[in-house]
Amino acid sequence: MKYSVVIPVFNEEENVLELHPAVTEAMDKIGDPYEIIFVDDGSSDRTVENLQGLSPVTIIRLRKNFGQTAAMDAGIKQAKGEFIITLDGDGQNPPSEIPKLLKVMETGNYDVVSGWRRHRHDTFMKKAVSRGANLLRKVFVKDNIHDSGCSLKVYRRECFDNVDLFGEMHRFIPAVLSWSGYTVGEAEVEHQPRRHGVSKYGWKRIIKGLIDMISVFFWRKYASRPLHLFGAAGLLLIGGGGLLGVALAVRKFIFDVPLSESNLPLLMVLLFVLGVQFFVSGLLGDIVIRNYYSGGRKPYAVREVIIKTKTD
Asked: Does domain 3-222 have CATH number 3.90.550.10?
């Protein structure tokens, strides 16, 4: 298998009927063996029924709505191709742009090529939020691409050998890979208006994306040395408590000021306790998270996998 096209979908019953033939047309022109993987993220409409009438297609059904990142991770783990192509299921990423990304990957010898929706056909609010997120991303993530939110991307298979996706981290895959030494390129692509259905982009996704951006920032800076963050904060608090303790000792034994009339001794103890907690709890939390996901656990559950070939 040369290419695997991974498409997460949630309540896109009309769009999948138009998207599938567009993908097959684009991939047939390329001429190499490919597979199309639709990951149904707990749709409540006729998305699955419509997909079952198409071929060739692999349908992964999740048991409920786990989110786009979980759906993408399920599709990537199912994929068998040397190159993995991802795009949204809303039809706004034209599959006809796939050869453009593959050409950039070949000429630049990149491991990842990300689409850049320079001229977006979205609502004013969605574009405004995206611009704000891009500014924060440049500060926290520094992935050196213009449009991390564009799902139209091409990856080499080996990029995901040691990568598990959770939260809203699908936007930051190029950043995570670049920190591991993978090369990331970019190609300007077209962006179409949504023709059917409604956008799933809401305030909850904005908050989750912001939280995950901060999480990615932490991994970029302190993944291999978490004690440099938590240890420094803990030592500062402990040091503050120690200085306060010295000051209290001077007041008590030199100036004979009674400590019972002040709340400063309580503050000293609080600084010590907080310092120790910062030092220990942050490290333990980091260890617990790493052990949880390294044990083969996934933040989603697959109901079934349906594979339909051209002859079906």
From this structure: yes
